[in-house]
Amino acid sequence: MLDLLLRRLLVGIPTLLVIITVAFFMIRLAPGGPFDKERAVTPEVERNLLKAYDLDQPLLTQYGRYLTGVLQGDFGPSYKYHDFTVGELLRAGFPASVKLGSLALLLAIVIGVSLGAMGALYQNTGRDYAVMTLAMTGITIPTFVMAPLLTLIFGIYLAWLPVAGWGEGGWRHLLLPVVALALPQIAYIARLTRGSMIEVLNANYIRTARAKGLAERIVIGRHALKGALLPVVSYLGPTTANLVTGSVVIETIFGIPGIGRYFVQSALNRDYTMVMGTVVVYAVLILLLNLLVDLLYNLLDPKVQQR
Amino acid sequence: MKPHRAAIRALALGIALASTLALSGLASAETVLRRGNAGEPDTLDPHKATGIWENNIIGDMMMGLLTEDADGKATAGAAESWTISDDGKVYTFKLRDHTWSDGQPVTADDVVFSIQRVLNPETASEYASVLYAVTNAEAYNTGAIDDPAKIGVRALDPKTVEFTLASPAPYFLELMTHHSAFVLPKHKVEALGDDWVKPGNMVSNGAYVLSEWTPNTQIKLVKNPKFYDAAKVAIDTVYYTPDEDRSTALKRFRAGELDVSYEFPGDQIDWLRENMPEAVHISPELGYYYYVFNLRKKPFDQLAVREALAMAIDREILCAKVLKTGEIPAYNMLPPGIANYGEPALVAWHGMPQAERVAKAKELLAGAGFGPDNPLKFQLKYNTSEDHKKIAVAIAAMWRQIGVQTELFNSEVKVHYNDLQEGNFEVARAAWLADYNDPHNFLFLLDSRTKKLNYAGYNNPAYDKLMDEASQLTDLEARAKVLGQAEAMVMQDLPYAPIYHYVSEYLVSPRVKGWVDNAKNLHRVRYLSIEG
Amino acid sequence: MSLALPDGSEQLLAIEGRSLWQDAWRRLLRNKAAIVAMILLAIIAAMAVLAPWLSPHPYDEIYWERIQAPPDFANQHWFGTDGNGRDLFVRTLYGARVSLMVGILATGVSLLIGVLYGATAGFLGGRIDSLMMRFVDFMYSMPFMFFVILLMVVFGRNIFLIFVALGAVEWLTMARIVRGQTLSVKRRDFIEAAHAAGVRKRKIITRHIIPNVLGPVIVYMTLTIPQVILTESFLSFLGLGVQEPLTSWGVLIAEGAQQMESAPWMLIFPASFLAVTLFCFNFLGDGLRDALDPKDR
């Protein structure tokens, strides 16, 4: 286990470095800069702006400075939001995004696994089709349709919940965005669970358990589900990546002060430092999650331990 | 099952709690205005601000020597009176006896310090150039001189400040309301540097003080008890929320989560007029939407081609059927409501029926060598936006009627303006919103010395000469006449095809009183109140 | 937005070999959902191809007197018109062309890279294999959507780039599946026999291994296409979609979503087409998997 941890960390550092480097030079290649606006500034002011943000230095120097800064935990000033540093903005937005994302993940797993298990238990019956069709609607309706639809119904027609905003992150403000974010993931998880559950149900050890006369509830709950969860666990990495992408839409539509919105906005704004900050945060997040998934996998899967 | 009951109990508790909170909110005597602002401010530093959504917030806190009235007109602000010399070049302002929100007096020193700061190249203010009318302002801002004392602004005594202009500028008083001319608290800025705008640090001389700023969530302003006219300020607390997604902002307004919302999706106008007509506020704004021809590229160097393209656009249909929000079809450059101006100089063919214009346009194109066998083909660039897209699609269809093949190309805003400024386009969408209410603020765009902002690359010595001539005139009528000649010249040469003049769009709850639609589209909260 | 199949399911997808095809086809035909899905997909594809002949309206013609008009049979605007007064029926079909094309071509790109990469790794095995797979693992930890957006920003937008970018995102899982299959196929007798007979490596890969890993690859392809179509719609929502007057379902839906109350037809029709297509691909994919999976027999 410790070996795995160490190995992962050793691979993680160069991975991060590559990601930072690629992102750094890619965004600089993009046409237009942070100070290109509807209203062109005079060349003198532009020169001053560039100087103020160190953008007049050779690219490699800037890259070196950026890396040194990041190592010291300094992500630099935001080129768009002049009154804040990237670090301040990320710190301010991170809790909201994490709250939103983890709740959505939880919801997607609980509902997805339940629906998938149900589908498997009633394989190829009407109930199976109904459940799976229901799960699948989540991926057939894009988030940017589902989210405004939900706000229209629950925020305006029924007036049960606030339309947008964050409040203090209370459940009334969280409910709609969490559901909208979780819906597409429910479908994937349900399908994955169903597939692996069917396989597990046909496996020898389940047959043995049944033959031993164990209650069906225990067979399903303790043995079958556990086996069926393995693929779901390994899918958590991509799910998280998908949640991140989804949060771009959700945070914009619901006006949630997370960092998902910076993911796209900063690239469009050519807010170079913010782009880099977001990339680093997400890359670290994904690396950590993949590690966590591997650890979980190790715990759950007897086969892996033998290897 | 047990968990169920627990969940229901939690739910009930939540609802009870929420309603208690709501009730207690109603019970308090505090008057709150929630204002959707259509954008997160890049900064609250008036010298660095660039957008109207920033101006909205900052202008509720800070005042320049002059400030806006409820209807957007310039009125006494930090200065209570002023005199202008006969040659129109020396302005002397007498400061009002008032203080910053921390009790320190506002002095002539603050004014001089502020002007020097905004022009300081190190501040890198994007709007510093609007103050170039002041003697040596440009030289200092561009680094030609190093001594800020040479700028034409000085304190005569603690309450009197004098500005000297390089040439008379009848819009100078108006300019003093602009956020780049706001008065800053010298003692705070000197002590705290750029951090002076943070909540807790920021002090102001206007009606409100910054209380909280949670990025991308909300900005809370509270009433400034030290404000000189505090007795007349009715609203205690203002919440500005970014609400960048316009559809969401509209829904929040409908749900009562916002009292005022800036900009709504244009395509919702029919629905809005039908369902909440009393909330819709649309009024002409000082802005101009146009397509620019790149005169440096063939065949747009030919007047006939530009004229044909400009004529073939049916502006009436475009405004009435595609835009629908009351935009004004434009046959000239300067928007209606512009100050210090006479009759607009319209294009020669503005009275011609559209069918005739189309026929004439075809003729012109044929004359330039384009026809069915050799159609005119080019790329039209616009930046990503639902409205720009609709307009481009409609105009491309209009141009098809005269045998022109248009390739539509949209790009994100940074790329678009980079292309415009580098001259990397054939025909492109552009627009201009006034910084101050004067024809000069539009006409300077075509001065060949304007360089980057002169997207078309229009270079007409006669035009530059007219601009020089106008800058020396103090008599407003004579000046208007010269500026009129300049506009007529543009409408003759057509480096731009005018399309429409802007309107501002606001949703204002009928509970909010004191709202006056105005061409500058500025609505300071100190003039508003809430009924009920 | 990459649909990654977990390691475990690679074995789950394992198939026995060529003898299976007829068997699988028969089983697929017994799956009603899959049949219906195939028929619907065929209809939609045919409509997309025949678009210009199915409506009297060109896709870029503006009807000034009928801007944003509801469905209207008298003028043959079966789906109504959009905010520019263009016929929505024909635009939905042209949108289908773009969306399906993006889906299929991007999947094709991912297929090409994934199969070549995965088969090579699996076949060569040993050090090279573990190195190549290490690279895939490394690529997985990239914030990919971000790079796609950056790509669009850097190189401007064109359809071709969308294919390549999305294909480049989706090939990883494909490579993993193919490698797993190759490894298991490699150990089989007939490959050993070919080896023994002195058949060259390249020939073994193209003649024997690739045909035998096709099953799971087809299944994964069917599931990748809807994924890519969705991703394209996401990019359209961000304003990074195809250029006017071309359109895609994503563009149409993003426009329609703004108007769901005032002009519901602008959302409902394109969204239904998208939803039906995604449903169909998913059902077909599931059906194929069931049909090709011997363990389910």
Mind explaining what this structure looks like?
The complex is a heterotrimer of chains A (307), B (532) and C (297). Chain A is built from 12 helices and no strands. Chain A has helices at 2-29, 43-52, 59-71, 86-121, 126-140, 143-157, 171-201, 204-211, 216-254, 260-269, 272-300, 302-306. Chain B is 32% helix and 20% strand. Chain B is built from 16 helices and 19 strands. In chain B, helix 9 (303-312) runs antiparallel to helix 11 (354-367). The longest helix of chain B has 26 residues, at 2-27. Mean pLDDT of chain B is 90; it is low at 19-27. Chain C has 297 residues and is an all-alpha fold. Chain C has one domain (20-296): MetI-like fold (Orthogonal Bundle). Chain C contains 11 helices and no strands. Chains in contact: A-B, A-C, B-C.
Element layout with pairings:
The complex is a heterotrimer of chains A (307), B (532) and C (297).
Chain A: H1 2-29, H2 43-52, H3 59-71, H4 86-121, H5 126-140, H6 143-157, H7 171-201, H8 204-211, H9 216-254, H10 260-269, H11 272-300, H12 302-306
Helix pairs in contact in A: 1-11, 4-5, 4-7, 4-9, 5-7, 6-7, 6-9, 7-9, 9-10, 9-11, 10-11
Chain B: H1 2-27, E1 32-36, H2 52-61, E2 66-68, E3 74-76, E4 79-84, E5 90-95, H3 108-119, H4 137-141, E6 153-157, E7 160-164, H5 172-175, H6 186-192, E8 208-214, E9 218-223, E10 237-241, H7 246-254, E11 260-262, H8 269-275, E12 280-293, H9 303-312, H10 315-323, E13 328-329, H11 354-367, E14 377-383, H12 386-400, E15 405-411, H13 413-422, E16 427-433, H14 440-443, H15 461-471, H16 476-493, E17 496-508, E18 512-513, E19 529-530
Parallel strand pairs in B: 1-10, 1-11, 14-15, 14-16
Antiparallel strand pairs in B: 2-3, 4-5, 5-7, 6-7, 8-9, 9-10, 11-17, 12-16, 12-17, 13-17, 18-19
Helix pairs in contact in B: 9-11, 15-16
Chain C: H1 7-12, H2 20-30, H3 32-54, H4 88-124, H5 126-140, H6 144-155, H7 159-186, H8 189-196, H9 201-237, H10 249-257, H11 265-292
Helix pairs in contact in C: 2-11, 3-4, 3-11, 4-5, 4-7, 4-9, 4-10, 4-11, 6-7, 7-9, 9-10, 9-11, 10-11
